[in-house]
Write a structure and sequence with these properties.
By secondary structure, the chain is α/β, with parallel strands linked by helices. The chain has 4 helices and 5 strands.
Length: about 140
């Protein structure tokens, strides 16, 4: 099944998707935030367009594992998504994914691609989710 991952920021939502075999996550697109209801509609339209079977939302926990204001906002966004779709919506610890994406993007600069880091962060979140799931299932 294909899974859509979200890196929910204050101005943009980075998105990533995996292959049907759930092995490889790739950056997909960036949604410019326009308000929670419009954002939810945009995500659900993308999920339908890409024919995904689940959504993974990166949860920005603090380094000590606590939930700050952004994590609580993200949980609210995930709850609203879940209320509007029959797709499973899972939260996934995204600690350091944005920093990792920024390091990767800085090492491979691309001009004129604002928001690329957001989609890359979503791919990092999704790859972590996929790898953990395979590991729990005892797959290589």
């Amino acid at each position: 099944m294909r899974i859509l991952a979200l890196d929910v920021g204050e101005r943009r939502i980075g998105t990533a998707i995996c292959d049907p075999d759930e092995r490889l996550a790739v950056p997909l697109s960036v949604i410019q935030r326009q308000g929670r209801e419009a954002d939810v509609q945009s995500v659900l339209a993308l999920a339908e367009q890409e024919e995904v079977g689940a959504l993974v939302v990166g949860l920005p926990l603090s380094l000590d594992g606590s939930k700050g204001p952004q994590a609580r906002r993200t949980e609210g966004f995930a709850r609203q998504l879940s209320a509007r779709t029959s797709l499973p919506v899972e939260l996934w610890d995204e600690r350091l994914s944005t920093a990792e994406a920024e390091r990767y993007a800085a090492a491979r600069p691309r001009r004129g691609r604002r928001g690329t880091t957001d989609a890359l962060a979503a791919a990092i979140i999704l790859q972590g989710f996929l790898d953990a799931r395979r590991s729990r299932a005892g797959e290589p």
